[in-house]
Amino acid sequence: MIRLGRIASIGAAQPVMQGTEVIEANGGVLLPGLHDHHLHLASLAVSRESLACGPEACADGPALARALKRQAQTRPGAWIRGIGYHESVAGNIDAAWLDRQLPDTPVRIQHRGGRLWVFNSAAMERLEIAAADPLEKVDGQHTGRLYEGDAWLRKRMSSLRESRRPELAAVSRMLAGFGITALTDTTPQNGLEDLQWFQAEKEQGALLQDIRLMGNASLDGVRSMLPGVTVGEHKFHLLESDLPDLDAVAESIRQSHAVSRNVAFHCVTRAELVFALAAIREAGSRPGDRIEHASVTPPELMQDIATLGLTVVTQPVFVQQRGDQYLQDVAAEDQPWLYRLQGFLEAGVALAGSSDAPFGDSNPWKAMQAAVERSTASGQALGVEEALGPEQALALYTGPLSAPGQPVTALVEGMSADLCLLGCGWAEARRKLATVEVQLTLMRGQVVFP
Ligand SMILES: [Zn+2]
Questions:
Q1: Which of 157, 191, 249, 304 is 20 to 30 A from 374 (CA-CA)?
Q2: Ligand 1 mean position to 305 CA, how many Å?
C-alpha cells in the first residue's frame, strides 16, 4: 500500500481502505525504480532529433551520403546534426567530403566517441569560423574537424543564436518506460545555468526522474534546494593525448573535497586510468569518489582502485554494442580487461551500471542482458569470466543515486514509492532481461508510465 508517496505497508492480507486505487499486478514483479548512474540527458534529447551516422545506420560512404541528402530535403536550410559516426563508414571524413555531399546545407557530424565534430563549409560559414578558432588546420586551411571542442562549440552556437536547449519531456518519458526513476547527468561542463535549467524542467514536470548533476568546479559547494535535483561530483574529463597538469588536478580535487564534494574521472584508456589514480592518490581519496567507464582495468590498477576505495560506474552494454570493434581495435593483451564486471566485485570495488546515453543504448534491460551474456553483436565472446548473474546485473541499477554500488535497498515500509512493475515474474524476467517489459513506473506513488 502506498500513501502520501511512500510505501505504507507490504503484504498480501492488507485491508483495502475506501478510496484506494487497486493495481492488479497479474503476477508481475514489483522492483525499486531503476537508476541510470551515468548519462548525458540533454545530449540524449538532442540525439533523438539527430541523424544516425554510425555503421549500424549507414553501411558505407554512399549510404551516409544518401542519408544526409534525405535529411536535407525534410527541413531545407536547417542544420543537420549527425551523430555516432565511426571511420569504418567512410574513413576520416572532413569538410571537403561533406561539401561533395551537401554544399549548401550546414552539416555537423559527431564522432561516436563524442570528442570530434566534423563541419562542412556551409556550417563553418554559419559559425563564422576565423583563423584563431580551435578547428584543426592543415597547411593553414581548416579541415572542418574540431577535437575536444564541445564547450567552445556550445558557446559559439549560443552567441550566434544557432542553438537552443532541447525538449526533455519525450526522452524522460522514454526512460520512465524502462522503469527508470533516477538519473545522474555526468556532463563535465555542467554549471550553474545548467543546474537552473534542470531545476526548471523538473518543476514544470518535463523531467520526471530525480536527477543528480555532476559538473565543473563552479558547482563546488552549491546545493540544490529543489527536491529531486541534487548536485553531484566534480567531473574531470581526461584525454590521453592531452593530459592536464597532475598537480593542478590534485589541487582541484582537494578544493572539491574541502566542500564535501566528491570527484569523478572519465577513464576510457589505461593511461587515463593511471593518471586519474595518481591524481586521486596525491590529493587523497574520499569515500564516494568515482571512476567512470574504467574501460580498461588490468590487475595492477584494479588493486589501486580497491585500495583507494573508489566506486566504478561502468556500461555493460558496450560489450554487446561495440565489442566487435574492440576485438579489432584493442590490443589482445588488454582485451581481458575491457569493461570488467565480476573482477571489480571480486576485488571488493563498489560497482554500478549506466548507459552513457546517447553514446550507449539507454535501455538498462539490454545492458543487464549484456552483463549476463558478455557477447558481442555478432555473437563473439568477450571476457566471459566477467559475466554477472541476473540478480547481480539488476543490482547495478538499483543502488542509491548518491552512492551507486552501495548495497541495494530492498522494498521496505516508509521508503519513497519510486517503483517499477514488470509484466512478468522475476523467474521469467531473469531469463529474458533484454526483452523485459515494464508495465508501470511510479514516482512518489504517482504513475509516470504509461
Ligand atoms: Zn559519459
A1: 304
A2: 19
Per-residue pLDDT tens digits for 421-430: 999 999 999 9
Q: How far is the CA of 273 from the centre of ligand 1 (A)?
A: 15
What's the 237 CA to ligand 1 centre distance in angstroms? Answer: 9
From residue 412, how far is each of 30, 210, 348, 407, 415 by CA, in Å? Answer: 12, 20, 26, 14, 6
How far does residue 183's CA lie from ligand 1's centre (Å)?
12
Report how far ligand 1's centroid is from the alpha carbon of 32 (Å). 24
Query: What integer pLDDT is reported at residue 163 of this predicted model?
Result: 67
Q: How far apart are CA 259 and CA 219, in angstroms?
A: 10
Could you give the angle at the alpha carbon of 369 between the alpha carbons of 366 and 372, nearest 5°?
155
What is the predicted pLDDT for the residue at 16?
76
**110 C-alpha vs ligand 1 centroid, how far in Å?**
14
User: What is the tens place of the pLDDT at every residue in 276-335?
Assistant: 999 999 999 999 999 999 999 999 999 999 999 999 999 999 999 999 999 998 888 899
User: Which residue has better confidence, 20 or 347?
Assistant: 347
Query: Separation of 104 CA from ligand 1 center, angstroms?
Result: 33
**Phi, psi torsion values for 78, nearest 5 degrees:** -80, 155
**CA-wise closest residue to 211 among 148, 165, 168:** 168
* pLDDT score at 113: 82
Q: How far is residue 37's CA from residue 352's CA, in Å, rounded to a whole number?
A: 7
Whole-angstrom Cα distance, residue 143 to residue 263? 36
* Cα 356 to averaged position of ligand 1 atoms, centre (Å): 5
Q: Give the distance (Å) from ligand 1 centre to CA of residue 38.
A: 6
352 CA to centre of ligand 1 in angstroms = 14
**pLDDT, average across residues 93-118:** 94
Residue 358: asked if its preceding bond is cis (omega within 30°), the reply is yes
Confidence at 158, pLDDT banded by 50, 70, 90? confident
Q: Using the mean position of ligand 1's atoms as its centre, give its distance from the Cα of residue 20 in Å.
A: 42
Domains of the chain: 32-43+167-449 (3.20.20.140), 50-159 (3.10.310.70)
Interval 359-400: pLDDT, tens: 899 999 999 999 999 999 999 999 999 999 999 999 999 999
Cα(39) to ligand 1 centroid in Å equals 6
